[in-house]
């Protein structure tokens, strides 16, 4: 029993999925040192795998968003994805561009701008934040993930051009100019529309056979899961991630909803292993340190602007927890893998930057929890202001997470 206590104590501080990701990265690093994969990031299979993992993670973020919450608080969502994502990404990228004067840092800064919803969901039980603050952080993490992915992919072509190279990045739209973006948008909308038609057809089939055929509803749910995997493959082949983000808002797999959450966790571990394979080529510690500190600092700064707008009446302790809420995980890792073929050395910067961010997160929150009881805290105040629906939207996010 005594041998199990350190693990229990660690699991209360660091979520098990994060520990698993660290172990998977170390395993990948060991495997890479043994086999020395030659130009792994340059292969077509690598790009397809990175795209497929990104599609799984992106769907995992958007399928937890409830449309009712979006409709009830459109203004609050817009604040979250502008101040909470775009401005934060701009701050991080600006720091990196000023520090190192390389165009690739435009997208590297965006890649770590999001808060990892998987890590947030995993830490909810052991956190000393109030339920309202947990709900806000989880809702924020769910909304900023897809926006960050799309920003990174679409701005990759700008960084590619500013680097003085011809052609197009694999992770972004093919071609150049407004026409390339419009064509890419058209293909994304076409794939999302196709996914919607398939979903509606399967839903009608479920209603027809659900009560007439034993196990018929579960069979249709399995067909839905297969159809969703096909959407992921098509999206991964052409990096149509906007279509995946939109599909996640409506496409449900019924009895296999829990499988999606497990698939996201597996994708996290696979991506971490692949990250370790590429880390054999080395890391770039100084840019990584600056990137990690910039991401963590930007969250603290932006939370001062976003939190008062999204939810009034939080206690002082909750506000500090939200300011220290930056965590990176599956999305940042997979974005690094996806960007590596176009911007070599991305993994060697983003991977240690993720470590820096998470170390800062757990260390600062650990210190806060240790000394919080010694600090005066007036407690939660009454919710006031023009944003009352955000309370319901955040609570809906928690209900979705608990149900899954």
TrEMBL record:
Glycoprotein found in the keyword field: no
- The organism sits in which domain of life? Bacteria
Is Transmembrane helix among this UniProt entry's keywords? Answer: yes
Q: Where are the bilayer-spanning segments?
A: 13-34, 46-65, 77-98, 105-125, 137-160, 181-202, 222-251, 263-280, 286-310, 345-364
Alphabetical UniProt keywords: Membrane, Transmembrane, Transmembrane helix
For this entry, the protein name equals Cation/H+ exchanger domain-containing protein
Origin species, per record, is Actinomadura decatromicini
